[in-house]
Amino acid sequence: MKRRDFLGKAGAAGALIGSGLLAGCQQTDTAPAATPAPAGGETIHWKMVTTWPKNFPGLGTGANNLARLIGELSGGRLQVKVFGAGELVPAMQVFDAVSQGTAELGHGAAYYWKGKTPTAQFFAAVPFGLTAQEMNAWLYHGGGLELWREVYEPFGLVPAAAGNSGVQMAGWFNREINELADLQGLKMRIPGLGGEVLQRAGGTPVQMPGGEIFTSLQSGAIDATEWVGPYNDLAFGLHKAAKYYYYPGWHEPGTTLEGLVNRAALERLPADLQSIVMNACRVVNEDMLAEYTHGNALALQQLIDDPDVDVRPFPDDVLRVLKGHTQDIVDELSAKDPVWKRIAESYYAFIEKSTENQRVTEVANLATRSL
Ligand code: CA
User: How far is the CA of 214 from the centre of ligand 1 (A)?
Assistant: First the structure.
């Protein structure tokens, strides 16, 4: 079967998922249950490397769900073993490992690979950009996924959306941010484009893996950090290391997590298994957002009720300046890189159309809750 054929089929399908399987994937088991191999048939074994600590809530459990779903949907014909960050390869080598075929599958976030191509950042999160709902609209129906496949094609990789955190939080701060001057010299753990924006605003972005954040914040090595949102931040205990919890996550308005598939390995599979792999990513994409939406709701309440935590909004004046720096960075890259320019045009054309629709639907509806 030609690659274009399976990509088309995998992209369009969504109906093969039965209700029993949907019920199963809502569980967040600590490890994927192995599905018994079919009698007499060939069993294919794949490895999945991930950028997350093993079993980490939402991110790691999403990777586990992906492996389990592929096993279940294939009737045990394709079995996937999950490796946490550092177990088979370090977190930041997941892209290379899947590209080279060390593992057939990977789970991570595209903005980690901006060193390979800066355009990868569009497929994870852009400051002041698309929300989770809009990312899925752009990827699945607005041409975004085709652009993503084009960007990863030279690396022998087929990407898929395989999770979303929803709107993140601006992060944990050990000082108040009342005006732009308060960002001067602020040492903050913040990756990607958000970090570049902070730098232009006078701050000092610091890169560090999730596992080092708590100690760095507590010791004062950094003044602030972003991680994900209440559900994940509580799991790291960040509320015990800083007082001010700012919103919204201007830098990550709906971060897409990714499934990375080695193209040669995918093409060796029969057509039905290819479709199962791509559609399992799609199920996990939706289920992870549901897990975050639920987990964040419970965790935020716990943080609001904590007398040692002060949940507050970033000042509009500060956000306005950060938004201006974001636009400058996007425009500068467009002038330098024609691929970046083409993706930016597609991305921002959709934002422009979507904003009015969101205003009269989601935004207007949420406003009625406080009537
Ligand atoms: Ca984040």
Answer: 14
CA 204 to chain centre: 23
Kindly report, residue by residue over 320-344, the tens digit of the pLDDT. Answer: 999 999 999 999 999 999 999 999 9
In terms of Cα–Cα distance, which of 106, 117, 108, 149 is closest to 8? 149
Q: pLDDT tens digit string along 154-201?
A: 999 999 999 999 999 999 999 999 999 999 999 999 988 999 999 999
Query: What residues are neighbours of ligand 1 (ion), with CB under 5 Å?
Result: 168, 226, 252
CA of 227 to the centre of ligand 1 (A): 4
Separation of CA 326 and ligand 1 centre (Å): 16
Sign of CA dihedral 177, 180, 184, 189: positive
For residue 164, report the distance from its CA to the centre of ligand 1, in Å.
11
Q: How far is the CA of 165 from the centre of ligand 1 (A)?
A: 9
Identify the three-state secondary structure at position 78.
strand
Helices (H), the chain: 3-12, 19-25, 59-73, 94-100, 132-141, 144-152, 192-200, 213-219, 230-236, 263-268, 271-304, 316-336, 338-358, 364-367
Q: What pairs with residue 82 in β-bridges? A: 48
3-class secondary structure, 294:
helix
